[in-house]
Amino acid sequence: MTLPAAQQPHWRDLPEFDLIEAELAGALPLVAPSEIRAAKSALAVAAAGGARVLQIGDCAESFADANRATTGRKLRTLADLSGRLAARTGQEVARFGRMAGQYAKPRSSPFETVLGRRLPSFRGELVNGPAPEAADRRHDPARMLRAYDAAAAVLRAVRAHRSRAGQGPETGPWVAHEALVLDYENALLRADPHTGELFLASTHFPWIGERTRGLGQAHVRLLGAVTGPVGCKVGPAATPETVVRLCGLLDRHREPGRLTLIVRMGKDAMRTALPPIVSAVHSAGHPVVWVSDPMHGNTVAAKTGQKTRHLSHIIQEATAFRRVLEEAGQHAAGLHLEVAATDVTECVGGPVTDETALRARYETLCDPRLSPEQALEVIDSVF
Ligand code: PEP
Ligand code: CO
């Protein structure tokens, strides 16, 4: 049965679609079941209160970044920020990059107006191109193959970096992305040759976004069916009943490390909306990992026209998150942040003193990211 699915590309009628799907379905897995199990074990420790979690990276990756030098810079940023979180909390940190697959974006509107022209919205390089031209904005299924190749290149760089650092797959870092485009994710479903269990061969940690977590929808069914750790965003409109039902579908066996709830309420909703959810999930017996995404509920339009976020709001939401969890006797495991590996000026705060300073290095393909320095300030303020 085909379930409804929001935010999908329009490309199934194109003549090349079936061949592309067949090619992806025959492709080698990008990640191994053993790595997925290792990531799940690390998250199980965090679920029990014994470790922290940090998930960071671009809002949308670009194919042009799928090389060793850029990936190395991103991994060093991840290592630096994780090191700071470990130092401040005295706990190990399970590290995840929003990388090697973060190529598809949900959009609030299917169209946007750029320089006076109405165009289909940019949906990530897996679907279409960011240039403000109709030809580039066409949904092109061949981009799924480019996304697969880019992810493979990033993963090669991750593994090379890991072995240079004397680390194995059991310590991470691992890769994560929003499992959004079902034609891509479904084609990368594989069975573990040893156990027969289904896994998503596209990433170590897929998550479901706020716009696609509908209970009867295809994304929830897909991630409910795979083994390995999965995440789900939880926004301000989620009720305790909805979240408990999501837990039932995504964490059927009540396994520590299986489900990470990534809370993104906005700084004001957090203190009232989160406590009943935490209490309901606890009563239902789901040993979830609680992570705060203090970015996506705090996006505003700057006077200069760009989308931005204020460091003070991000800190306010993540601090409120930690307080709510701790007041409930639960572990506030960590943070999920959009962070660049360079000194971008996309969020206001710290060195970006006001909105006029956003202009200098505003480079994101989608949402505004923190610079590494701003991200350190978040970690230091919250933990
Ligand atoms: C994202 O993580 O980039 C995103 C789109 O988040 P959300 O689904 O929480 O809006
Ligand atoms: Co984003």
Task: State the gist of this model.
This protein is an alpha/beta fold and 383 residues long. Helix content is 35%, strand content 16%.
Can you give a write-up of this model?
- By secondary structure, the chain is α/β, with parallel strands linked by helices.
- The protein has a single domain, classed as Alpha-Beta Barrel (TIM Barrel), CATH 3.20.20.70.
- The protein has helices at residues 17-25, 33-47, 68-89, 143-164, 182-187, 218-225, 240-250, 270-283, 311-327, 372-382, and strands at 51-57, 92-98, 111-114, 117-120, 174-178, 189-191, 198-200, 205-208, 230-234, 259-263, 289-292, 300-301, 307-308, 332-338.
- The strands form four sheets. The chain has an eight-stranded parallel β-barrel with strand order 1-2-5-8-9-10-11-14, surrounded by five helices.
- Helix 3 packs across helix 4 (143-164), helix 7 packs across helix 8 (270-283) and helix 9 runs parallel beside helix 10.
- The model has no long low-confidence stretch (mean pLDDT 97).
- It binds phosphoenolpyruvate and cobalt (II) ion.
